[in-house]
Write a structure and sequence with these properties.
Blueprint lengths: L5 H11 L5 E6 H6 L2 H9 L4 E7 L2 E2 L5 E2 L8 H8 L3 E5 L2 H13 L4 E6 L18 H14 L9
Parallel strand pairs: 1-2, 2-6, 5-6
Antiparallel strand pairs: 3-4
């Protein structure tokens, strides 16, 4: 998934599939690049949408440059200011589990920022964050949408 698209795409799915809980997972750099999406999430207010932001405060894939969250920006405050009332920060595993448990059982939209340690700049970009073929994953995802009748067939 490209930078700044995960939440926007999942917002559409949440609206199209109101009976299912939909999760958007992205990092702080991607969320910062797509912050305008938060106002649309708040305006549409899908109760089944959960946004999980993995906050390492850096653009790890491009050399670990600091994001705005590394200094003054606060994504939880920005989400709340956009109109998302269920916005929380989780600083450890127990807090992440509690936030996601609440998000799975109560109406949202929910916005959870999970603080994690930044990747070591000496190894940035060498992590196995994507242990799958991203192109194949996109094809599988498209086919799943076709099978549900949410997009027209691509002519497989």
């Amino acid at each position: 998934m490209e930078l700044a698209y995960p939440t926007a795409l999942r917002l559409g799915l949440a609206l199209a599939l109101p009976e299912q809980r939909v999760y958007a997972v992205e990092d702080d750099g991607s969320m910062i690049a797509g912050m305008a999406t938060l106002t649309t999430v708040a305006r549409c207010a899908p109760p089944n949408l959960v946004v999980l932001v993995i906050n390492n405060r850096s653009f790890a894939s491009t050399g670990a440059q600091p994001t705005a969250e590394a200094s003054a920006a606060d994504l939880v405050a920005i989400a709340r200011g956009s109109g998302i009332a269920e916005a929380v920060r989780a600083r450890d595993v127990a807090e992440v589990e509690a936030a996601l448990s609440r998000a799975a059982t109560t109406p949202g939209p929910h916005f959870v920022v999970a603080d994690v340690e930044p990747e070591d700049v000496r190894t940035a970009g060498s992590s196995q964050a994507y242990p799958f073929d991203i192109v194949e994953a996109a094809v599988v995802f498209r086919r799943a949408l076709e099978d549900r009748g949410l997009v027209p067939p691509s002519g497989r």
